[in-house]
Amino acid sequence: MRPLHKILTLGLLGLGLALMTAAPDLFSCHGALSLRFMPIEQARVQFAKVQADLAKQRATRPALEAIPGASSWIKYYDNPVFKPGEKGSWEEISADCFTIGYYDNKYWMWYVGTPKNLQCQIGLATSADGVNWTRHPENPILRLGPSGTWDDSILICQHILFDKDRKLYEMWYVGGNTKGELAIGYATAADGIHWTKYADNPVMDNTEPWEGTLIEGQTLLKMNGVYKMWYGGLALGSDISYIGYAESLDGIHWTKYAGNPIISPDIRDPRPWDGYSVDTPDVTHDGTLYHMYYRGWRKRSGISWIGHATSRDGIVWDRDPANPVLVTASTGGIWDNFQIYRARVFPGQSAPDPHKFVVDRMWFTGRDYTLKSQVGLAFRVRRADFPDTVTTAFPNGVNQDQMELSVLSMSGEEVKLAYFTPWISNVTLTIYNQEGRKVRTLVREAKLPGYYDAVWDGRSASGRKLVPGLYLLELRGDHYLLTKEIVLGR
Predict the structure, then answer these.
(1) Residues 6+ apart with CB under 8 A from 59
(2) DSSP strands (E only) in 115-225
(3) 448 φ, ψ (degrees, to nearest 5)
(4) Topology of the domain comprising 4-383
(5) Which residues are 341's β-sheet partners?
(6) Cis bond upstream, residue 387 (ω within 30)
(7) How far, in Å, are 122, 168, 175, 177, 254 from residue 192 at the CA level?
(8) What CATH architecture does domain 404-488 belong to?
(9) Domain segments of the chain as ranges
(10) What pTM did the predictor assign?
(11) Binning pLDDT at 50, 70 and 90, where does residue 365 land?
(12) What is the pLDDT of residues 324-337, one digit of tens each?
């Protein structure tokens, strides 16, 4: 077990001096793994086909997915922190679709294990530090129902709350039968381990056109005696998903918000990173604002990233201008180079002194091109009075298909620039005069995917002060070229 200060020293090294000088509680299966929602025999055939198709993609296309370079969330250096079980076990293919809580001075992770027969069930692991996990010996702790019942084929997408007044753990989970019919069920446990399913399950089903084939990926809060649920509605055929909202006084009888969906794909032009689908919300409340971390993707069965949004009422949401806040790894063979999703964020404890720093934690699921899903961890260090949102240099956002270049400010002869690469790439940032002659190269090095800054002092490579006028900025990567005009003043 590594002490927390060592974890932070290693995992947050990339934050550098910039931050130092600057002023608690799941997963769905879009695209490739939507087969989980098919009738079980059909799903097994489709699983083999998808694995073969993704193997071809992995072999024929360059790695263009990303990990953050200079963004605020920093992935733990020794990810993944939780892996599938041993070969032949009930969780040998994947461990994902998790909920994390902090009870009895330790972290509890309820998660979904996927075996070879694809009949997923729910297990439990605990940890003192959120990094080193011990599985419960009675796993899986929530099992398939008897043959012929509504949840006899698959159990996924669970969320757990602890009712302090009743001293009772409550679980909402997605269950399905062999025909591929799925809905949300309810269960309770006095110890978080031995669960009793509600006799009249399921408690919630898809009833609205926008919900598509099924509802899933739910997350819950209980506030002032009211259960609040945010959930995804997924259409399996098109891979299009939206996020909706529902309320309940008992956790069993639910009223869906009449204005659903509350978050839809962002269909601005050009289509951004979450312009095709959104789902798997994770919602917390800081006393003033609701914070949602959600999954978005740009094309059918494509890679997915994690974004952030805020709301005052839990219904009307504003996307963070700095989205996406966490993105996939870029190099071949990395455990999360295909999709990341199911963020579970624990905000750091606020400090009395606003100039103190707090550490936020995000657990997330990563998947590679073999469809193996595992759990990773990311950290963010921020000042206690720093809001859970930041601005971005790119007002139209970023996506997986192109580099970005922006002029942040011009003060006298100093030009502050920002650029983004969604790929691991050899990057050059070059300045040309209006005749097309190169006058200065600001950047020439291999870069991890992410956001970067650069400053031009208005001088040539030899240090000569350049005359005012029109200049061209050229940002070049291995697979992309971008130019921008700039006028250097007096």
Answers:
(1) none
(2) 121-127, 134-135, 154-163, 168-176, 182-189, 196-197, 214-223
(3) -70, 155
(4) Tachylectin-2; Chain A (2.115.10)
(5) 365
(6) no
(7) 12, 8, 18, 24, 23
(8) Sandwich (2.60)
(9) 4-383, 404-488
(10) 0.71
(11) very high
(12) 999 888 766 789 98
